[in-house]
Request: fold
Amino acid sequence: MIVTTTCIYCGVGCHLDLHIRNGIVIAVTPGKRGPGEGKLCIKGWSAHEFIHHPDRLKMPLIKENDTFREATWEEALDLIAFRLNEIKAKNGPDSLGFFSSAKATNEDNYMMQKLARAVIGTNNVDHCARLCHASTVTGLVAAFGSGAMTNSQEDVEESDVIFITGSNTSEQHPLIARRMINAVKRGAKMIIADPREIDLSEYADIYLQQHPGSDVALLNAMMYVILTENLHDQKFIDERTEGFSEFKEAVMQYAPEKVEEITGVPAEKIREAARLYGSADKASLFFSMGITQHTTGVDNVMSTANLAMLTGNVGKPGTGVNPLRGQNNVQGACDVAALPNYLPGYQSTTSPEVRAQVKEIWGVEPPLNKGLTLTEMMNTCGDDIKGIFVMGENPMISDPDLNHVEEQLKKLDFLVVIDIFMSETAMLADVVLPACSFAEKEGTFTATDRRVQRVRKAIEPLGGSMPDWWIIQELGERLGYERRFSEPSEIMDELAKMAPLYGGISHKRLESEDLRWPCRDSGDPGTHILHQERFSRGKGRFHAIEYRAPAEVPDEEYPYILTTGRLLFHWHTGTMTRRSQTLTDQVNQAFMEINPVDAETLGIVDQETVNVASRRGEIELKAQVTDRIKPGTVFIPFHYAEAAANKLTNNALDPKAKIPEYKVCAVKIRKT
Ligand code: SF4
Reply:
């Protein structure tokens, strides 16, 4: 038997054909349709390998005297309901926090935010988008009125110039990188700006290796050149935007010669890149966490929007500002409002009309209190926050400054984790609940280009595991909320009633149609390109952005900049990929990339074990001496619990989006 579903790893959303024999997923081959168009990357090809791993959680676990014992669902859910009620009665609903999941389906995430809002009565619900693309949502909503990728994946191949900044596309979104390479082979030009030389650089016409954290200065300097050389699109600016004169005044302070000092990029290269982007008929811009994970994350994102509007590159095929969403469903988890400041479909939590409509559908009024972000909840554990309910996240590896995270989670009165494996976070929990994997449940994921796609059940739930939406509904019932859904398609129907962006989307339509939101009613074919006639907010808004240095810069004691990221072969905290033989055979050991110049200064040779320390912690791992990384900067992938890069990272936050500055912190390095 073959069941077609959607990939669990990245936001490209390739279709996977799961091959089933005797209730076991024995292989994956590429689905013919979908964004992958019959192709997969290595993670997709091996996506079945973790499903039947012996480490899968099979029964609920309750911790007693520091040891877990197996429990029935009845007992575990009764205990959780009792403890949540107890904490709420004593400290109020806002003493509880809910961490939702970009790996779970839209239906699971919808249920999680509904549990927080309709059942408990708090807006304290968030998920790992806070750690990757919160600044994208804040920045692009301010500039365009919508925080999503403006164009569609197919569109890449129509671009004349592709500008990639802060995205290691070939490792993180391999099937989008494939389209970029196709475009280059057809004659498109490519500009890459990244402190670490990525594989795609070999296709780039211009490669800019800026210092980590200097993106605003670099983008402003490119816009300075575009303005002074009259490459801007005045008609587009006049007709479709506002705020141009204040923006122009700010940008004119950033001559490339001045910015060379801040960025480390020669002025002439900045000019070349600006001319190439500014002269293109259709220029598209792609970014990811190299832009967003900074204390200036929102400023960086708004600068990319400024550049696209300045040159009229929005609302047309082959153009746009395209944030590449990392996880399979980070777009969807945001859309359904696993965020503290929105109701489903990015609707205001304070709008009287929206609240009235939500009350009619839910039967209870949503809470008005301002919700805390994931990072704020973590920082107030033990004080404002007494209990946390986690679905499929692993903050003990994924959050910055892990020693602090561990201290904080240990201050809680009650911690519940739903997961498929015993993660580092689950080990700290009072109750652990076994969830189904993606192969064992129905639902939808929303890909990076707003494309909503079906997840289909291929095998029965393993052991005693259950789908997340079922677990949440059972808990909600014990907390006094009526049971409503017998299957996930009904949850999507309720979402469609509530969120106009999803108004025309149903599981039934998705069986035969390729739908991207906004899709407002059952006759709407969906939207491939946003902002075509007008921006979602009316006029596009230019912002005057000044360069600010990162929160922590190198000094005498900590003289190197650490930047972190992912690898092609592993995914986030490694709970799935490190249980996949094909992927661990490729690489399964932590390492630090260091430039040969720095290695020589420190007397370090390739593959030697080194100690890396920041003001927050230290780890030991192998050095990889390579000129991919520029002198003064080192790179560590964050997948490895045994040498967790996030023990070192800084939890300084962007003031608006509250995203941590994973991409820059100061470290010292020594031989062990
Ligand atoms: Fe899965 Fe992304 Fe690879 Fe496609 S590109 S197979 S969605 S990990």
